[in-house]
Amino acid sequence: MKHDLKMPPDMIQLLSFIKKEFYHILRDKRTILILLVMPVIQIILFGFAITTEIKNNKIVILDPSRDIATSRIVRQLVESEYFELAGYLKSDKDIEKVFINHEAELVIVFADKFSENLMHTGKADIQIIADASDPNTAVSLFNYASGVISYYQQELMNENNVPYQITSGIRLLYNPGMKGAYNFVPGVMGMILMLICAMMTSIAIVREKETGTMEVLLVSPMRPILIIISKAVPYFILSSVNLTTTLMLSVFVLGVPVAGSLFWLVLFSVVFIFVSLSLGLLVSTITETQVAAMLISGMTLMMPVLMLSGMMFPIENMPKFLQWLSHIIPARWYIAGVRKLMIKGLGVTSVLKEFAILGGMAVILITVSLKKFKKRLE
Amino acid sequence: MNVIKAENLTKRFGNFTAVDAISFEVKKGEIFGFLGANGAGKTTAMRMLCGLSSPTSGRGEVAGFDIEKQSEKIKSSIGYMSQKFSLYGDLKVYENIRLFAGIYGMPEKKIKVRTDELLEKLGFQKERNTLVKSLPLGWKQKLSFSVAVFHDPQIVFLDEPTGGVDPSARRQFWEMIYEASSRGITVFVTTHYMDEAEYCHRVSIMVDGKIEVLDSPSNLKKIYSAASMDEVFHRMARKAVRNET
């Protein structure tokens, strides 16, 4: 009757347990939805819908003189993909009506005798009027419009062969189209991996505590470390699947290429996945219910990824305290690294610092959470 | 032969002595009822015997292994079923059996043969591919017990196994316990139901962390000239100083 105690059959335990984890995941529609559909939606949402570029804005022109210079500027404005001509105004009294009736986003007012003044005095006035109730859009539109106007100015100078004229121009590196996707893809990758690894792992472990099956597992001869490994393996695999789909979507749908080495990008991501998995494990050791695990992962893991990682707001513009705080957010380093490896196409030597920091975080977090997990058994 | 031995087993949490120097022995194949009001220290004592928590002082042996130094060996010699339902609801009946058999290191071939035998014995052949969560509670409990003894443990620990089950299902459940006991499996069971205490070979009643009495139900009734175990239990429980929690 005595149970066979020859060599510990770790492999049988591990395989049976991993299989069981996959059953849990595959049989729960909500989990499947979060795991496989959400990343796709997020990439598409951030790639297309939530974008900082503004296209095809209606403009209205007030141009008393209608001369060569003004029509050239107007043509250039309309030819750019940003603006679309909605019509001409007759008098400046109509300007406010345009905004009230939402006929256009921008009104461009040329001074009387524009071309004449420009030729003779070298000076002519343009007024750009925007609706600043949405300041971000207003500023962007203003920048686009003044960009077009200064381009015309440059042309004019070249034509007239004005000597010693210094013109400064901006060249946009790596993302010449100023596409929002270039900015968001690294961020969304960081967010998805963090969400799946950390949140889902912590929930998966805490669920066993809640239903009482964890107790049965702890009384079984299965070693705690094996319980943890077999919880982590399925989510590791799923994260890899997600990494692949995210990359494919960015390349083929959003048109964001992998400029650098794919190998290093993947390896770098794997290190980040380890950090996220161990964070999830840590959360699971300090929570008792799935709801708590979800809230803690959401508040302490997801919010910082959104707010402090540089995904949405540039870290350089943050108050000093938040800048300092952002250093402990793993996603900050991951996103910075992905920007270098994927968008800028830099070599692995440029991300050594990020590699080292994430690696260090992974080691520390795994050690701490394993210790906490073992201690909890008492 | 004694398969469980406890000598002055004590567990303290800070100033609170949850289990206060309890000593007892359980023989092989015995059905041992471990009774006590909520907060009397039953669960803590049981956790120590299962190797989940180490005693503050005293010592214990389960299946011939020391509970402090050889808890890993104890874990593979015992089965366990908790008051909370201990199977996975989103796994099918046979998947649950295979999972736990795998965790206890049973080889694949043996698992297959034994699973078929078990399902036939329980009359669950049709439910082989049913998700456990859609079984009636009484069936779940039966399955849960069968899984706990599937790997032929020396001792099975049952922590209030019949909570919430109707009397007829409880009756059937106890038949399974008797059957396991006749196979030589020692049954260590905690329960709230005093009619169930009557089914045990011997019972102990814990009050405030101490074992107040330990004897067969018939002897206890004689000593306290009580008609039922329920009466014995209430007389004991009245001595409790600790608040019920």
Question: Could you provide a short overview of the structure?
Answer:
The complex is a heterodimer of chains A (378) and B (245). Chain A is of the alpha/beta class and 378 residues long.
Give the helix/strand layout.
The complex is a heterodimer of chains A (378) and B (245).
Chain A: H1 10-27, H2 29-49, E1 57-62, H3 68-79, E2 83-89, H4 95-100, E3 106-110, H5 114-121, E4 126-130, H6 135-159, H7 180-211, H8 213-219, H9 224-253, H10 262-286, H11 290-308, H12 320-326, H13 330-343, H14 352-376
Parallel strand pairs in A: 1-2, 1-3
Antiparallel strand pairs in A: 3-4
Chain B: E1 2-13, E2 16-27, E3 31-36, H1 42-49, E4 57-62, E5 65-66, H2 71-77, E6 78-81, H3 93-103, H4 108-122, H5 137-148, E7 155-159, H6 167-182, E8 186-190, H7 194-197, E9 202-207, E10 210-215, H8 217-223, H9 229-237
Parallel strand pairs in B: 3-8, 3-9, 6-7, 7-8
Antiparallel strand pairs in B: 1-2, 1-4, 4-5, 9-10
Helix pairs in contact in B: 3-4, 5-6
Can you walk me through this structure?
The complex is a heterodimer of chains A (378) and B (245). Chain A has helices at residues 10-27, 29-49, 68-79, 95-100, 114-121, 135-159, 180-211, 213-219, 224-253, 262-286, 290-308, 320-326, 330-343, 352-376, and strands at residues 57-62, 83-89, 106-110, 126-130. With 378 residues, chain A is an alpha/beta fold. Chain A has 2 domains: 10-50 and 179-376, no CATH class; 57-159, abc type-2 transporter like fold (3-Layer(aba) Sandwich), CATH 3.40.1710. In chain A, strands 2-1-3-4 form a 4-stranded mixed β-sheet. In chain A, α3 links the parallel β1 and β2. In chain A, α2 packs antiparallel against α7 (180-211), α7 runs antiparallel to α11 (290-308) and α10 packs across α11 (290-308). Chain A is elongated and about 95 Å long. Chain B has one domain: P-loop containing nucleotide triphosphate hydrolases (Rossmann fold), CATH 3.40.50.300. With 245 residues, chain B is α/β, with parallel strands linked by helices. A 6-stranded mixed β-sheet of chain B has the order 6-7-8-3-9-10, sandwiched between helices. The longest helix of chain B is centred in the last third of the chain and has 16 residues, at 167-182. Chain B has helices at 42-49, 71-77, 93-103, 108-122, 137-148, 167-182, 194-197, 217-223, 229-237, and strands at residues 2-13, 16-27, 31-36, 57-62, 65-66, 78-81, 155-159, 186-190, 202-207, 210-215. Chain B is globular. At the A-B interface, α1 and α8 of A face α2, β6 and α3 of B.
